[in-house]
Every structure is written in C-alpha cells, then in structure tokens.
Amino acid sequence: MGRTVVQITLIGLLLALASTLPNKDDWDIYSFHINSTVTSRYATTVITSRVANRMNESKEIEFHVRIPKNAFISKFRMFIDGQVYDGVVKAKEQAQQQYTEAVSRGESAGLVSSVGRTLEEFKTSVTVAAHKKVTFELTYEELMKRTHGKYELQIHARPMQPVRDFKVDVHIHEEAGISFIDVKGGLSTKALANAITKTHADKQAWVYFYPTVDQQKMCDSCGDQGMNGDLVIVYDVNRDNGLGHIKKSDGYFVHHFAPSDLPRIPKNVVFVIDQSGSMHGRKIEQTRIALVHILNDLAEDDYFGLITFDGNIFHWKQELVQANSKNLESAKNFARNIQDRGSTDINEAVLQGARMLNEHNREGSASILILLTDGDPTSGVTNLEKIQSNVRQAIAGKFPLYCLGFGFDVDFNFLEKMSLQNNGVARRIYEDSDADLQLKGFYEEVATPLLTDVTMIYVGGTNLTQTNFSHYYNGSEIVVAGEITDNNIETFTPQVVAISSNRRIIFSNPNETVESTGTVSDDHIQRVWAYLTVKQLLDKELQLSGPEKDEVKKEALELSLKYSFVTPLTSMVVTKPPGENTDVLHKPKEGETSQRRQFTGVRAKPVSGRGMLKFHHAPVKPPRFRGAVQKNARVPKLRVKSLDPSSHFPQATHAPAPPVPVSTVLPTTINVPWPTDVPLLHRFLINTKNQTVPLCFDVSGSLQLKLLHHPSEELFVNGELDSVVNGGFNSIFIHFQTDHHVEIDSRGVTVREGQTVAHHTGQDTITAGSVTVVVHNNKIHVTAGKMRLVILVHEKNGNKFLWPVLRKHRSADDSEGLLAVKPAVYEVVQQVPVTKLKIKNQETDVTSDSATDYSSDPPVTKNCWLMSADSALQRPLADFSVAQL
Ligand SMILES: *[C@@H]1O[C@H](CO)[C@@H](O)[C@H](O)[C@H]1NC(C)=O
Ligand SMILES: *[C@@H]1O[C@H](CO)[C@@H](O)[C@H](O)[C@H]1NC(C)=O
Ligand SMILES: *[C@@H]1O[C@H](CO)[C@@H](O)[C@H](O)[C@H]1NC(C)=O
Ligand SMILES: *[C@@H]1O[C@H](CO)[C@@H](O)[C@H](O)[C@H]1NC(C)=O
Ligand SMILES: *[C@@H]1O[C@H](CO)[C@@H](O)[C@H](O)[C@H]1NC(C)=O
Ligand SMILES: *[C@@H]1O[C@H](CO)[C@@H](O)[C@H](O)[C@H]1NC(C)=O
Ligand SMILES: *[C@@H]1O[C@H](CO)[C@@H](O)[C@H](O)[C@H]1NC(C)=O
Fold this sequence. Notes:
Blueprint: H1 2-19, E1 27-39, E2 42-53, E3 59-68, E4 72-80, E5 83-91, H2 92-104, E6 111-115, E7 119-128, E8 133-143, E9 151-157, E10 165-173, E11 178-184, E12 196-200, E13 204-209, E14 229-237, E15 245-249, E16 252-257, E17 267-274, H3 282-297, E18 303-309, E19 313-315, E20 321-322, H4 325-336, H5 346-359, E21 366-373, H6 384-395, E22 401-406, H7 412-421, E23 426-429, H8 435-445, E24 449-459, E25 461-462, E26 468-473, E27 478-484, E28 493-500, E29 503-507, E30 515-516, H9 524-543, H10 546-562, E31 570-574, E32 583-586, E33 638-642, H11 662-665, E34 681-686, E35 695-700, E36 704-710, E37 715-721, E38 729-736, E39 740-745, E40 748-753, E41 756-760, E42 765-768, E43 771-776, E44 779-784, E45 787-796, E46 799-808, E47 826-830, E48 835-839, E49 842-853, E50 860-866, H12 869-873
Parallel strand pairs: 1-10, 15-30, 17-18, 17-21, 21-22, 22-23, 33-34, 35-50
Antiparallel strand pairs: 1-2, 2-8, 3-7, 4-5, 4-8, 5-31, 6-7, 9-14, 10-13, 11-14, 12-13, 15-16, 16-27, 18-19, 18-20, 24-26, 24-28, 25-27, 28-29, 31-32, 34-35, 36-37, 37-38, 38-39, 39-40, 40-41, 42-43, 43-44, 44-45, 45-46, 47-48, 48-49, 49-50
Helix pairs in contact: 3-4, 3-8, 5-6, 6-7, 7-9, 9-10
C-alpha cells in the first residue's frame, strides 16, 4: 500500500517538472557553424549559433555547447538587435565579487562544467524580445598534444535541435606537410558519410561536415533533438627526424621536436598496483587484464618489477628481472591472481618501487615508475605532504613517476602533484567498461623511450617554456615556445642535446632555416607561447607553496588576462542587455575534473533546455515518503554498517556491481539467504580496531538518524531509514554552511544554494559553492568542504536504497553521528554458555549472527556479534536520532 502512495507522488513530481519544460517551438536555431582553424598544431575554434525567437513575447534563449577540457575559451559575444555584448575575462576573485553582488540583486550565474572524459560544458542564456534574433559566438583555443603518433581535434556537435544551416569547417595548415588525415568519432558513421568532405593537399587539409536536417536525425546518438556526438579529426605531420620544426613570427617562436628514426632505449619499469579493498570487482579485474597485456608488450631487453600493495607490500620479485618469456609467464600468473584486500599504503609501495629502480642502475636505459591507485593512502604514512616529500627524496629526479588514478574516489590533486614533482604526469582512469584499454593506452604512450635527459637550448631565445625533459617517447612530441631576443633571427640558434641509448647526441641545423611567417603582423605564435606558458605555470603552481606559489599564480593570472584566456584563475563575465543577469563563467580546475570543480552557482530561473531541463524553482521540493510509511511493514531484514572515521578510507568497496558471485571472490564471507518474513529491522555493523569479528545491532522503524554532524565545519549529514523498501536509507540530507543543502534519494539529487535549486536525475555533476555532487553509475559522490562522502545506490528485489560511505573528513572533537562512531575495542571474556564481550569495562551478552555490509559494492555478508544498539554504540541510540532531516 505504501508503494502506491509513493508512485502517485512521483508522478506528481514528474508532472510538475514537465510543466516547466519549454515549448520546443518557442525558438529556432536557424544556423549553427563550427569553424576550426589549426596552424602549427594550435587550434582556434569558433562556434556561431544563430537563434530566432518565434513567439510574440520575449523568451529566454539558451546557448549550450561542449568544448575540449584542454582548451581555453578566449572570446564570447552575443549580437542582439544590432548590439554587441562582449564577454570580458577578469580575475576570478574580481568576477566572483561582481557575481556576489549580482546574486544579492537576485541575478544568476552561468557555468562551465566538465562532462565526461574530455569535454567541458559552456552554458549561458539571454532574453530575446518577440520575433527577434540572437547570435552567440564562442571562441576557444588549444594546443594539440601528440600521442600515439597523431593529433586529435575533437569537435562536439550538439546544437539541441536539427538545424537547417549546420556546418562544421575545419582547416588545417601545417608547414611541415600533413602526412595523413582521417575523420573519426560518433558522427563519422555511414549515415552521415556523404555529409563529410575531406580534402588533403600537401601542407593543408580541409574537412567539411554539412549534414542535412534529415541526416541530423539519423546518426547513432542523434534523434528528434538533432545531433549529439563528436567529429574527431586525426592527423599527423611529416617529420624530418632532425631538429624538428621551428616556426617564428613577430618575435616569438614555437619548436616541435619529435624525431622517430631513433633506436628504442631499453627500459626498466616498475608497476605499483593498488589491490586495496576498494579495487574490488571490475576494477581489479580490468587491472589484471591490462597488466597481462602490458607484460606481453615488454621487449626482451626491458627489465621490470611488479609490486602490489594494500596495507602491506607484495613483491612479485624483490629485484627487477629481465622480460624474458619465463619471467613474463610467471609475472602474468602473479598478475592474474592479484586479489583485492586491505587498506592502502601508497607511501611504502612507491618507496619500494623507487628502491627497485634505484638498485637497478643500467647504463643506457630509461627507468619508469608507474603507480595505479584508486584511493587515498589509509595505512602507513598517510600525511600527503610527508608522502610527497618521501617520494621526491627517493626518486631524486632520476626517473619519472606516472600516477594513474582509477575512478572518482582518488585524490587526484595529490596524485597530480606527486607526478609533477617527479617529472611525470597523472592520468585519470575512468571507471568504465574500457578501463583496461585506458590503462593499456597510457602504457603505450610511455612504452618506447627514444631519448633521455633531453635539453632544449635556444641561444638568443628568452622567456622559454619548459626546456628539460627526462624522457622522450616515440609517438609523442616535445613543444617549446619562447621569445626571440630583440627579434634577432641572426643570433637565434636552437639545439637539442639528449642521450640516445649510450650516446649523447646533438640535434642542430647548421644551415638553419627557421620558417618565418613573414612581415604580416600575426600574434598566432605568441598565443601558442602564452597558452603553453599558462598551462605550465598552472602545473608549477600546484607543486609550490607560500610566496613562490603566489608569484607563479600572479604570473599565470597576468598572462591569462593579457591573452583573454578563461583559465582556472580567471572568469568570463558576460554582460547582457539592461535589466538582465550577468553570467560569470569559470573554468573547472585542471585535474579536478569533477570532484572539486567550482563555479559560483546554479541558475535560479527555469531555463529552456530543449529537454535538458535540470533546474526548477525553489519551492518545489521532492515529495517525502513519511506519510507513506507503515510502521510494521513486513519487509526483509536490513543490514547496515557503520564506518571507522579514524581512517580516511574505510575498506569499503565501490566498484560497479560485477557479475562475480561474492563467495568466489571473498572466501571468508558466507552467503545468508535473504529473509522474507521478518519485521523491518536495519542492521548496522561497527568495525573493530583489532579484532576480526565486527559488532552489529538492529534498529527498527524509519528513524531519522544523525550520520555526521560537524558543527565547526558547519556540516550536517542526516539520513532517514527506509521503511518501504528493504534497504538502508531512503533519503540523505547534507547541509553545509548556512545555505548549501543537498537532498539525495534513490531517484535523484536536489541541490539548493540559497534560493536557488537544481534538481538532477541523470548521470551528471552539479556544484553549489564548495559542494559538488557527481552522479556516476550507482554512486553519488558528494564533496562538501573537506568531507567526501559516497552514497551507494543499492538495489534489492527491484527496490533502491541508499547507503552512505564516508571517504574522507577532517576528524575533529566535535564530530558526531553514526559515520563518526569510533571502531570498537572489545575482548571476548566468556564463550559458554553465552558469549560475553567486554567493552569499556562493561560486559555484554552477545550472539553470533551475520550482517550485510552495504558499504561494499556489491554488498558482502559478514559474521558479527549481535547486541543491543545502546551497548554497541556505548550510548543511547536516541542520541543519534534527529527530529528533522
Ligand atoms: C573560419 O575562420 C577563418 C579564420 O578566422 C576564416 O578565415 C574563415 O573565413 C572562416 N570560415 C567560415 C566558413 O566561416
Ligand atoms: C500573441 O499571440 C496570441 C495568439 O497567438 C495573441 O492572442 C496575442 O494577442 C498576441 N500578443 C501580442 C502582444 O501580439
Ligand atoms: C616509432 O614510431 C614510428 C611510427 O610512428 C615507427 O615507424 C618506428 O619504428 C617507431 N620506433 C621504434 C623504435 O619503435
Ligand atoms: C620576457 O623576458 C624579459 C627579459 O628577458 C622580461 O623583461 C619580460 O618581462 C619577459 N616577458 C614576459 C611576458 O615574461
Ligand atoms: C636543464 O638541464 C641542463 C643540463 O642537464 C641544466 O644545466 C639546467 O640547469 C637544466 N635547467 C632547468 C631549468 O632545470
Ligand atoms: C647545409 O648546407 C650544406 C651546404 O650548404 C649542405 O650540403 C647540407 O646538406 C645542409 N644541411 C642541412 C641539414 O640542410
Ligand atoms: C586490542 O587492543 C586492546 C587495547 O588496544 C588490547 O588491550 C587488546 O589486547 C587487543 N586485542 C587483540 C586481540 O589484539
């Protein structure tokens, strides 16, 4: 019966949402052009969208596009009724201030947010009078990065409706000559094949994509709303295998260096693989698969090592061994048998890896350390700065460290900083069906070292971007830009010194022919220099602290402003016709793709989103189920677990539910049949400090519980136990600082910031101030200040319920709640006739029982000592109840 009530309210909500959807015929995008010009691997793309308001009243019209994460927006303008409204790039703080004022006047902010692996979303809107038109024009710039021997220009086309005049024009001009060009991506399919024209001349190439309205509905990811997909232009340039290609213009130069006719250098590689409990399921499986592939790719003169770690370190072999077939077979066996377990001791694992490489000093080889992890350090040294300084000391600049962060629970910032400090890079591995291919793809980028200790020297050059590189890999490219002192081309002499196998080689071109773009004033190369300099300063800033950091930040900010780049330090302020909101657009920070992104707010007004509607007015609150609750509903027994807050990362797992039966993965667990006819009880688990069997207790009814209260951080997390569906919680509320509220139930997420409300049902990301919510598969990641919480959405017999897992929070004396319960310390003082445990000098009768640990995904069943809630919690259960979520 309770179920029926729920469904009715749900439909009510859907109706309420539907009524705010804009009428599809209100406005018409009659023209949509994407024009991308690539010169010397620097792409400048202009998106122009022309929209008409067909109604006889004014309408809010939205501009909503996706651009590559790597790009900087450099220009945005709107043309309305003969007027131009230019976006202005300002220092973020300054824009923020302006925005805050705008908010107090009841105005809204626009956003740039990251979507998926490679794209960011740009959104703004403007009110257009009856029968008037608006033109939106967005420009972004990016330096293409060569990987796997090619450049990829990604163009995302999603105009949100079929457009009569839809065009993508790409023009590539490379002085070195274009060796090949291909068109790929989801839009380059059969149905659209004849809409694509590709022309390839020696130094230039053109790609035109002009699909008809009918074709725009035909591609795989397209429909009535038109196209939604990528066009990826893949190309490479000819290589002379010497010094490479140098282009100069207006006193600036850019040097592309990518020789490929060199012998490969044998490598020494150590893989440090996280096998902590959180890797459980598909992640560890994909890691095994990728490792076996990677091992297969090692060359016979490579040496390698394999370390797996959780709270302990496991060496396949203590020393590096040669990659001969015998060793590889044995290593593959080891890899196939990696099991997830335990906590995460990143410090010791990386130090061991560094030790192995340091002990294996081989002339004429290239050493590489690769760390794969999916979580924060939880055992051994857990202080992030301490780990970083230990690692830096152990590596001492001798070889690069590459960090691969698997999934959303990693502290990517930490990994990125650690890699950058050791001449490497960090990569995110997305938890998806192709994670093994991502791992393999990354490995292939570093699989073939051709040079080590590369020093790029430019006599007569100044203000150079990075000039020293520890390794150069086949298929990649080194790019250096700078100024030519006094624009004196006579004295400008580029040279590259590097080690190839055992030889020191010098690349130079005695009869230098530096290509010059002539006398026409052209700031193109200067922009390349600025782009690269800003990117590198942002990386540098990440590694520094104190006044040095401020200095670098200041420099990056000045350049961003000078070249009008929207970087993590700047914002674009979009002014609109009088009486309208000012939008402030922020770029999410590098490496903070989805967890710590910031932008200043969510829109307060219903936004016409062509079926993309995400936000609605504040007073609409999702219905709550309390009225539908039956106190004694006969619902199966529930088991819930409380976490150890003293460790940042409980051993909870959070992989997507794999099809692996739990009992085959964890031989110590037992499967308990799901009881079908017991009163509704929620069973909680309490971890123990040094015993093997956890405690458990039951709570009946649909209590509202205090999960985590942290008054000094202004953080409050409450949950309501479900009494309709047979799981953990039906809703979880998070209140952060005075005006940030997140409400989560199994159907979606609602974020409030002041009077602004964003409701959210898909796989997506929303941010309000320092609160970020990422919905990814069956997980909802919430970051609020220093707290990271993952809410697992479990499904049992078709019913969904929520299960909170605390990943990180600042432990403080004033933290309270079920998630803050300390692990139990107990002793078994008597076995027969009844088992008695002694907890804090109090003896309690217990029975041996079992509980499902829902902090695991999939849940696992554990043995536990069952006792009353009050004994288990060492205080009355009533202390944990709250009157209001
Ligand atoms: C594309 O942009 C380039 C450079 O701004 C310009 O020369 C060209 O005319 C544009 N092409 C189209 C089709 O708009
Ligand atoms: C707008 O159109 C409606 C019907 O299409 C009409 O009733 C109304 O008078 C029009 N309003 C104006 C301002 O023209
Ligand atoms: C480097 O890559 C090129 C093609 O991209 C290939 O022809 C060459 O053999 C590679 N070099 C080595 C040492 O693998
Ligand atoms: C470039 O270098 C010169 C000195 O060599 C310095 O005066 C100037 O400020 C630098 N320009 C930038 C933009 O850093
Ligand atoms: C680059 O390497 C050269 C030679 O190895 C060294 O002299 C120079 O100091 C390095 N420069 C930087 C900026 O690290
Ligand atoms: C440099 O010039 C000399 C003669 O002028 C020529 O023989 C040689 O091939 C040239 N070298 C390069 C790398 O162009
Ligand atoms: C658990 O820890 C307590 C206090 O730290 C200690 O007294 C007890 O002996 C330990 N028990 C086991 C089994 O290690």
